[in-house]
Amino acid sequence: MTKSLFDYTVKDASDKPYPLSQHEGKIILIVNVASKCGYTPQYKGLEALYQKYKDQGLVVLGFPCNQFMGQEPGTNTEIQEFCQLNYGVSFPVLGKVDVNGSSTDPIYEFLKDEAPGILGSKAIKWNFTKFLTDKSGKKVDRFATATVPEDLAADIEKALKA
């Protein structure tokens, strides 16, 4: 049986289980985030997308990751405070994960298998790589770090209508 995003449970910022099945039937935008990255201001755009489309069925999930030049060194609590104080983030920012290597979180194994990068590469190249899933949690599109959140609006609207 082919897995879907909704078959996974991750950890929230308090290290408690966070079943993705709670979002079944919604469009999910998953982003590996970092607080000390040149792309960190994308939090503002991610929050704007969330505010614009959450009532139509969009969920944004941030997964902090410290694998890229140590740009997410904080604890889960510090990350939560940073996101709220600096960007007013109201979407879930979950527990810190690895997105590459031997300790890759299973959700990222799934995402990379479903939507490889350029030339079939599965590795996440940098912070703020984005994955958008459909309402079934199966179809996954991948967007590069440099793709600003605002540029995802058309893809989100299309997925919401499907």
Account of the 3D structure:
With 162 residues, the chain is α+β, with helices and mostly antiparallel strands. It has a single domain, classed as Glutaredoxin (3-Layer(aba) Sandwich). The chain is built from 4 helices and 6 strands. β3, α1 and β4 form a beta-alpha-beta unit. The two termini are 23 Å apart.
Looking at CATH, the homologous superfamily is: Glutaredoxin
Distance between the termini: 23 Å
User: What order do the strands of the largest sheet run in, or round the barrel if closed?
Assistant: 4-3-5-6
What would you call the shape? globular
Rg over alpha carbons: 14 Å
Structural class: alpha+beta
The low-confidence parts are none
The biggest sheet amounts to:
4 strands, mixed
Q: Strand tally, please?
A: 6
Mean pLDDT: 95
**Domains, number:** 1
Please state the second-level CATH architecture.
3-Layer(aba) Sandwich
Produce the secondary structure layout.
Layout: E1 9-11, E2 17-19, E3 27-33, H1 42-53, E4 58-64, H2 76-87, H3 106-114, E5 130-133, E6 140-143, H4 153-161
Parallel strand pairs: 3-4
Antiparallel strand pairs: 1-2, 3-5, 5-6
